[in-house]
Amino acid sequence: MGRVWHINGPSMFKIQKTSNYGTATPAVARTALQGGEILKFFARSHAEMDGALTILFDLKRHLLRCVEIRDDLAKEIATGRNQVAIEGLNVQSGGQVVTLPGIGDLQSKAEGFLQSAKLAIAETGNLTNPYYGAAHGHQYHKFSAWAEKKFGPTDDLTLVVKSWEPFVKRIVEARNAVDHPLTAPGAPLITVNFLDVRSSGGVPELLDPSWGLTGEDLRPILPDFDLIIEKVICLGENVLVRFFYKLRDSEIVEIHEIPPDKRDPSNPRRLIVGLAGNE
């Protein structure tokens, strides 16, 4: 992805690369690109559309930082596993000492990922601002209270925002456990590098890096990264779709979901605007 500036007359252009990720990345295709197409059908002013687009681009930016951290971690995990596959685990001292591969500064990677995920979530909660003058950030309990007061307790937006509260709370609490590393259950955040366990045959096996909050069972970190990225993307889509049905310029259009097997790999957007009743 990049930007092009028109500089000093029609014959000079400056092209500058601004991201290593293009439209084939879901965090790009399903945020700013997909959202920009949906916003075209809102019966609102250009200023409101520009405000919403800015939020979607910031959502994309924070998500791409999550993707970057995730991809770097995946490469390090693959390198460590390949090393073990070729050389095996180096067991010494009669099985009392084993040399394991390691991920560089795993704790900082986890903390940076959570910070960017929290910032991305905050942008989804800010999508109300251009249209209603209310920015909620990551405070989804306030977002749901606002939606209930404005649209009612059974409104679709209210119900959707409430349904996402546990996920948002989980990410915010995990990030807060970094900012406020207490010793009580639930904090601080714990990361564990590659570990070995003894198989039933007594042979050491490699376990991937894991993480969790104090007092919890640790989980493999990479699948969690993938799940969080996908869920934040879905969260942004959920909020935007609800605004679409409140603010669309005509009831003859509606949102359609593109089946996974029919999505363009070069731009795997999930949602598209089409005529109502047409699949």
Question: How is this structure best summarized?
Answer:
The protein is α+β, with helices and mostly antiparallel strands and 279 residues long. It has seven helices and eleven strands. The protein has one domain.
If you had to describe this structure to a student in words, what would you say it looks like?
- Helix 6 (about 155-180) packs antiparallel against helix 7 (about 220-245).
- The chain has about 280 residues and is an alpha+beta fold.
- It contains seven helices and eleven strands.
- It has helices at about 25-40, 45-85, 105-125, 130, 140-150, 155-180, 220-245, and strands at about 1-5, 15, 90, 95-100, 190, 195-200, 205, 210-215, 220, 255, 270-275.
- The protein has one domain (about 30-250).
- The strands form five sheets. The chain has a three-stranded antiparallel sheet with strand order 5-8-9. The chain has a two-stranded antiparallel sheet with strand order 1-2.
- A hairpin with a 6-residue loop joins strand 1 (about 1-5) and strand 2.
- The model is unreliable at about 5-10 (pLDDT under 50).
- Helix content is about 50%, strand content about 15%.
- The longest helix has about 40 residues, at about 45-85.
How many domains, as an integer? 1
* Shape estimate: elongated
Distance between the termini: 31 Å
Estimated share of beta-strand residues: 15-25%
Major beta sheet, strand line-up: 5-8-9
Structural class, from secondary structure content? Answer: alpha+beta
For the structure shown, list the relevant keywords:
two-stranded antiparallel ribbon; 279 residues; 11 strands; single chain
